[in-house]
User: Which sequence fits this backbone?
């Protein structure tokens, strides 16, 4: 039995070491990005709140110019979040002005339309809109916007084009409009950042990095910060420093996600790099997040960037899952064999102790006490037998459900029902249901072993800090954390992994309950383990 435990421990350590080696360069930064990604929905909800406020103000606006300004704000907030809605508010902007009275605004709306079409991948239409612009009506700010949009469109075309000659032609045109924007921009960090792009086009990354270092202290908003970090990643990429590229992309992706935008370039590029570094699971999650956001935003270029690498990573991920399933089967049969050996051993011990008690019935009180201890061991063996059988049933049930789920996805794929397939892939309901069922099974099993745990645990707390499950619950989160501690699982990372929470959440729960201890707070968890 000890040899088996040592073997399992070695396998877990090897897996952990290989994972640490894969993440070694930027392990901490990637973990922080994972935390930001976990809160992506909250960040997007904040953007939705801002949209609702602007829409409410639009309904209460009293004149057309105020409505125009609010529609412009809604266009800007939707631009990299939901391109279709951005296009709608461009049309509304046009309805609030008379083009003859406001020629510069009319031309600015054409630039707005080109910018949205560029995000949506309609590059030809975007250029046609820009060609209809009369830039002579623009002031300096509008002229910078006009040139920058032209530069962005040609840059997108260059990224989209496969032919090297065409790509070079588009880059050269983008350079022309970048130079035009620089000529209009006053001396400022924004201009210096645009000049950095010129340095990178001239293959001068060292010079570019010196300028970028001087600009990091000037970050007026998140959009500027993301642009700066991404440009820095391009400089390090030219120098061939992979770790620095990953670090810059991590910072860029974190800012993108915190802003709540859905159209971005850093995260899919980061997914490719960490996939090449061997972190398949994280690369798959990043790419899945990028694909969902690109679809929701209707950002065609970003979607195509993701779909170029997604099949490769998806295939590798499926193969990895297959290997894990094979390992699960091997472990299942190992556990089954161990269970059989335990049953045989329990039966052997039972009859051996029964025979021994018959032969030594005449022994002293010490022998009687020894007999009672042996009886307790038999009972312990029976408890192990019951819970091993319960665990094996749970494993078999889970394998059957995974097979059924895989067959359902296979049917959707074979039927080419891609929308339903993507919907099924994105849905987390299956995992949530299985996790809830697993926790209920854990709670029942734990309370079967320690039926008085809740009362004994509350006896260690002050009266106003005692914790009881709500109606319909077996154990709540606080009780489940300390149930794991009672079982000997004291490492915060393992508890967080088991419960699906962040390390900070588990740490806060432990600190909060420890502060409610009736006795010595430093010995509280040791007293829980002794219950």
Assistant:
């Amino acid at each position: 039995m000890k040899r088996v435990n040592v073997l399992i421990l070695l396998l877990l350590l090897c897996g952990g070491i290989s994972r640490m080696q894969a993440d070694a360069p930027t392990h901490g930064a990637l973990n922080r990005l994972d935390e930001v990604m976990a809160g992506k929905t909250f960040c997007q909800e904040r953007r939705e709140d801002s949209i609702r406020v602007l829409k409410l103000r639009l309904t209460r606006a009293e004149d057309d110019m105020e409505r125009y300004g609010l529609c412009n704000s809604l266009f800007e907030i939707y631009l990299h979040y939901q391109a279709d809605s951005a296009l709608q508010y461009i049309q509304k902007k046009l309805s609030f002005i008379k083009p003859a009275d406001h020629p510069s605004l009319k031309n600015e709306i054409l630039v707005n339309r080109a910018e949205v079409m560029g995000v949506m991948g309609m590059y030809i239409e975007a250029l046609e809109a820009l060609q209809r612009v009369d830039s002579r009506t623009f002031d300096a700010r509008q002229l910078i916007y006009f040139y920058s949009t032209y530069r962005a469109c040609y840059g997108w075309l260059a990224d989209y084009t496969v032919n090297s000659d065409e790509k070079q032609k588009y880059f050269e045109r983008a350079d022309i409009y970048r130079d035009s924007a620089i000529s209009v921009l006053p001396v400022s960090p924004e201009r210096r950042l645009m000049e950095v792009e010129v340095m990178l086009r001239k293959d001068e990354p060292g010079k570019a990095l010196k300028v970028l270092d001087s600009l990091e202290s000037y970050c007026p908003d998140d959009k500027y910060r993301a642009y700066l970090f991404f440009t820095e990643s391009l400089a390090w990429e030219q120098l061939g420093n992979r770790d620095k590229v990953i670090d810059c992309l991590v910072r860029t992706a974190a800012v993108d996600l915190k802003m709540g935008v859905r159209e971005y370039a850093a995260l899919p590029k980061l997914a490719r790099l960490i996939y090449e570094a061997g972190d398949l699971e994280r690369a798959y999650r990043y790419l899945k997040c990028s694909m969902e956001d690109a679809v929701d935003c209707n950002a065609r270029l970003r979607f195509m960037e993701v779909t170029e690498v997604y099949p490769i990573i998806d295939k590798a991920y499926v193969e990895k899952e297959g290997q894990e399933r094979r390992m699960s089967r091997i472990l299942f049969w190992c556990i089954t064999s161990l269970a059989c050996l335990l049953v045989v051993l329990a039966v052997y011990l039972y009859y051996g102790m029964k025979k021994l008690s018959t032969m030594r019935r005449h022994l002293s009180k010490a022998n009687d006490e020894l007999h009672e201890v042996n009886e307790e061991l038999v009972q312990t063996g029976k408890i192990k037998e019951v819970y091993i059988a319960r665990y094996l049933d749970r494993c078999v049930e889970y394998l059957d459900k995974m097979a059924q789920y895989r067959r359902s996805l296979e049917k959707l794929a074979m039927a080419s029902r891609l929308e339903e397939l993507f919907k099924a892939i994105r849905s987390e309901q299956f995992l949530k249901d299985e996790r809830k069922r697993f926790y209920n099974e854990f709670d029942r099993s734990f309370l079967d072993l320690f039926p008085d745990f809740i009362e004994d645990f509350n006896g260690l707390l002050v009266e106003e800090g005692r914790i009881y499950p709500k109606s319909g619950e077996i154990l709540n989160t606080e009780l489940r954390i300390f149930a794991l501690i009672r079982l000997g699982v004291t490492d915060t990372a393992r508890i967080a992994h088991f419960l699906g929470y962040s390390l900070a959440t588990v740490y806060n729960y432990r600190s909060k309950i420890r502060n409610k201890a009736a006795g010595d707070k430093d010995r509280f968890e040791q007293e829980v383990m002794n219950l």
